[in-house]
Structures are given as structure tokens and as C-alpha cells.
Amino acid sequence: MHKVHEHGRTKLFQAWLDFFKGYVDFKGNTTRSGYWWGFLLQTILLLLAKLIATKAHMMSYSAGNDAPSVKILSFVGTLIVILLILPMLTLSIRRYRDIGLKNISIIIFILMPLVLQGIALSLQSFITINNYSTFLTIFNVLAFIKQLFTIIDVIFLLLPSNAMTLEKQNRWVRSK
């Protein structure tokens, strides 16, 4: 397992190497530039997966869903997406650590949007004509809170290294 400890400005090629070599490195740190270069790589690979899935979808109309080429393309597109989940998660965790967050803050910050999404999806099973407006209100509040987390996430990811470290010991962020 490769340990990722970036400092200063990370060049494109080094950031992409760290993206793949640090596939399961949850303990290192990633600089701002290293994160955004990795994010660019992930975006390019996800677009490639989307193009493959679109090609498979178009081929399913002409060749049928059971054609081997459709199944292979669908499998490859899905595999790319699945293989990108863990390195993007580790990249984000290393970035949060680089700005000064402790593990408990990182866990809460990553899990909260997922929990909110789970609550919103589970509420859909309770929709009836009578309580539809109540459901929409709750759903909109959850969506708003999730969007706040997204905005805070982007702000955090734009911060320089050690931007959130404090002079005193704290449960949520590292001390200097």
C-alpha cells in the first residue's frame, strides 16, 4: 500500500499517480492541487464510463439487450464507476485531513449527506394523497440541508493546507 503525503503544489502526473497508488490510503494527506487534479481524473473517467454506457444503450436498440457486445460494454462502464468509488473516497478523506479535520469530523461530514438521502428515500414509501404536502415539505428541508453540506464541502476543499487547525486541542480539528 502506497502512503500519500503531498506537500505544496502537486503536479498533474504525480496527483494522478497518488490517486491510484493511494487507493486505500486513508491516513495520508492530499493537497488542494492534488485533490483537484484527482477530481479531474475521476471526472474524465466517469465521462468515459458514461460514453460506454450510452454506446451500450444505443447498441441495445439495434442488437437487442442480450447481445454480448451490449453486456460487455455495460459491464465495463459499471466496473469503471465501481472502481472509482474507493479512490475518490480516500482522496476526499486525505484532503479533509490536510485542511485539519479529525477523523470524527470527517466521518460525520461524509455520512451526513448519505443519511439525509436515506431518510428522504425511506419517506417516499409513506406517501399518500393525504400527506403528500407534508412529505414535500420534509423532503425539501432534507434537500436544503444536503445542499448546505455540499456548499460547505466545496468551501472545505478549496481551503489551503492546515487552514482549520487551532492553537488548542479540540475534538473536531487538529491542533497546530
UniProtKB/TrEMBL annotation:
Q: What are the transmembrane regions?
A: 34-52, 72-92, 104-129, 135-159
Provide GO CC annotations from the record.
membrane
One Pfam family it belongs to: DUF805
> Which keywords are on file for this protein?
Membrane, Transmembrane, Transmembrane helix
Looking up InterPro entries in the UniProt record yields: DUF805
Query: What's this protein's name?
Result: DUF805 domain-containing protein
Organism of origin is Candidatus Paralactobacillus gallistercoris
UniProt lineage: Bacteria, Bacillati, Bacillota, Bacilli, Lactobacillales
